[in-house]
Lipoprotein
Amino acid sequence: MKNFLLPVAALMSLSACASWFQREGVGFTGIDGEPKSVTAEKGSADFVARRLSLPAELAGKPTPRLQSDKGDLDSLAGVAISNGGRNPTTAVEVGAGSTDAYLSTVEVNGVLFAVLRTPEDGIDRLPEGAGAGFARSVPRLTGCLAGGQVYQAGTAKRPTGLAVPLNCS
């Protein structure tokens, strides 16, 4: 009798969710706050980026290997900034506050730099204070630790590019 009552009780409790003739399941609609649909329009509320992790995507981009006759880190960072990627084929698009910027890696005299630049066809300045945010974000963006301070091109208030040496060992 127990073998019969247990399945009947389970069936009755599950059938209480809907009528016998209405066979629409509840289904999984997502966790609260998750978008139910996906758009490709950046900036819309239901935008979901379909991309790899940022360090993996960055590793897939070309890394220019350059030589410079200057040896100090400040000069090497300047060379790295001037050769950093500014389009989707040479760099990865990342957000830098209210503007978008491009992150790339450049090796100068054997020193690997993470370089943050503005897009080719966009604004020519990064937001004020972008250097501090970039320094904090380097491990998350590149998978490597910052190997020194952030160097910048442009003025102190509005840099045009940022570079930080990487410690990937």
User: Anything to note?
Assistant: The mean pLDDT is 78. Residues 54-167 form one domain. The longest strand covers residues 99-108. Residues 51 and 57 are 8 Å apart (CA to CA).
